[in-house]
Amino acid sequence: MRILAVDxxxxxxxxxxxxxxxxxxxxxxxxxxxxxxxxxLSEPKQAFDCLLLDVQMPQMNGIALCExxxxxxxxxxxxxxxxTAMVQKQYIDEAFDVGATDYVTKPFEFSDLQQRLSDAxxxxxxxxxxxxxxxxxxxxxxxxxxxxxxRLSDPLYFGDLPGCIGLAEFxxxxxxxxxxxxxxxxxxxxxxxxxxxxxxxxxxxxFRETMASAGTxxxxxxxxxxNFATYWGNGVYLxxxxxxxxxxxxxxxxxxxxxPVEVESCxxxxxxxxxxxxxxxxLKATSKMEALFLIDKAVELAELGNTQMARFA
Length: 313
Prior knowledge:
This protein is α/β, with parallel strands linked by helices. The chain folds into 2 domains: 3-120, Response regulator (Rossmann fold); 142-312, Reverse transcriptase/Diguanylate cyclase domain (Alpha-Beta Plaits). The chain is built from 10 helices and 11 strands. Strands 6, 7, 8, 9, 10 and 11 form a 6-stranded antiparallel sheet that branches. Strands 2-1-3-4-5 form a 5-stranded parallel sheet, sandwiched between helices. Helix 2 (34-41) runs parallel beside helix 3, helix 4 (89-97) runs antiparallel to helix 6 (167-180) and helix 6 crosses helix 10 (288-304). The longest helix is centred in the middle third of the chain and has 30 residues, at 110-139. The N and C termini lie far apart (47 Å). 41% of the residues are buried.
């Protein structure tokens, strides 16, 4: 795996290079500024499999660099891991908002960084493969056939929806918030009711379109009180709600009950859509495993819920 590490501190770059070499990553390139990194990334022969970015750098910080890197052809799905001493929620939010894959705070455990690198690379490869399959389906002449390669449980990627990030990024964000800022947010799961029946009656592209349209309506209604969202699979969206903005599961049910009847493109196959809203799950954990358990708990509460909202066709 080819890695680009960017930090304005040469001692940090030296440490990262030594650590990554010890992990078996022999091809490590370093840059001491955002401008230098962009110049390296713009060279076609300098393709990287992962970027490690510091946040606090002069002239162009790591968050701005991450945003610019995502615009470069070939780097839309490349893992970008922020490696920084900045622990404030503001920086964490901004990093994930512009496309960061993960956020590691200094000082870090070497074994933890190694695991995050491995997870990020695997996730990026899986996402590329899923997108390629989807694009092939969209252009296939047999779109009327049901696609056995798509599973109801697949965590579809809706990165084009404002505020919606990939599941892996969402999990990493939850881990950061629940372990470092445990009093500021909650997680709520919202399930598209009858998702299994919709899936069984739809082609792969039609099901994705239906879930995307349901997500568009949901995210539009919650944008004022929501941080990030993701599609978990099984028709379930996960939302991070800000405690300071006064939104929770009960408020969400009210918002969805007022949703307009007509939602553009949502019923290509004439499916009637409604939501099941789960309950608030406080983002408070002391470990990665506890944080991921909170996600599972939120999903379970939505799948067990009997309240259906905002039915539309």
